[in-house]
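Q: Okay, next protein. This is Zinc ribbon domain-containing protein from Natrialba swarupiae. I've checked the sequence twice, so it should be correct. Can you predict the 3D structure?
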Amino acid sequence: MTAEYPSATREIGMVILAIVALVVVYLMVTVTLAFGLFGAFVLVAFVYVWFFVWNADSGDLSGGQNCPSCGSRIGADEDVCEYCGESL
């Protein structure tokens, strides 16, 4: 049994992605106009550090496994994938 998402879910995801992209472009243009390119670079650096460093998952993933059917990360002691129901 494979996990398939309805097309409506994909469309919603694409709409959300487009909205996020427009907001990011708007913020970059606004910051660039207000503070110049240096301000834009500082904003990008701050967002990078915030997203990839401060919010990094510090959990140990070495004890888990990936479901062969859907690829979701699950615990090492699981017999059935909690996302797609595939028997491991």
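A: Here is a summary of the prediction. The chain has two domains: 7-56, 60-88. The helical segments are 7-54.
Q: Noted. On to the next one.
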